[in-house]
Design a protein that fits this description.
With 190 residues, this protein is mostly helical. The protein has 5 helices and no strands. Helix 2 packs across helix 3 and helix 3 packs antiparallel against helix 4. The chain is globular.
Length: 190
């Protein structure tokens, strides 16, 4: 049975859908599942707290901390914060940034980084300091005071470290580019 040209125009998209190859949907580069983000942050936050406790004990001259002297309640609070707040928050921000500024070109990545540092970083720091203040049993007024005192300072330290890292990467890449031009080093860095 031959189809009319109008019927073929109507059915042609449906034929394509029926015969298209079945592929597993690809995840965008750099995106992780919410569970992966939660697990990663759930390792980073308590690990950082344990390092903080060890450094504090060393500064006080106590040397190593015995296992029964660790503040496990604080470490558990950091674990909960990393898994339940920071991990899903980072996942949501990443999805929002990818949909708001599509693309992987240098300009798009620069816009995503700029938006992240100007919008997400201060909000994330405020949430962190407010949450830890609440977990320590402080009042809302004390928590707000802590946010006002600590967020700008922490954000500036974080940005200074990030700029230093970016400059290091720029100069280390240029060093490798220069070494490629030299005949004796060209084989090593290709």
């Amino acid at each position: 049975m031959a189809l009319s040209s109008a019927a073929r125009r109507i059915l042609s998209p449906l034929q394509w859908l029926r015969h298209r190859p079945r592929r597993r949907p690809r995840r965008a580069a750099g995106s992780a599942s919410a569970a992966t983000s939660a697990a990663t942050q759930g390792l980073i936050f308590p690990g950082a707290d344990l390092c903080r406790q060890a450094l504090a004990a060393e500064e006080l001259g106590g040397g190593e901390i015995a296992i029964d002297r660790w503040d496990w309640r604080t470490t558990a609070a950091f674990l909960a914060y990393g898994c339940l707040v920071q991990g899903p928050l980072l996942h949501a921000w990443g999805a929002l940034a990818r949909s708001g500024v599509p693309g992987r070109a240098a300009a798009a990545v620069a816009r995503k980084v700029l938006l992240g540092q100007l919008l997400f970083a201060p909000a994330s720091l405020a949430l962190f300091f407010g949450s830890t203040s609440a977990l320590q049993g402080r009042t809302a007024r004390e928590g707000a005071r802590e946010i006002v005192d600590k967020v700008p300072q922490s954000w500036m330290v974080r940005e200074t470290l990030r700029i230093t890292m970016i400059l290091y990467l720029i100069f280390s890449r240029s060093t490798f580019s220069i070494l490629r031009l030299l005949p004796s080093c060209g084989l090593l860095y290709r």
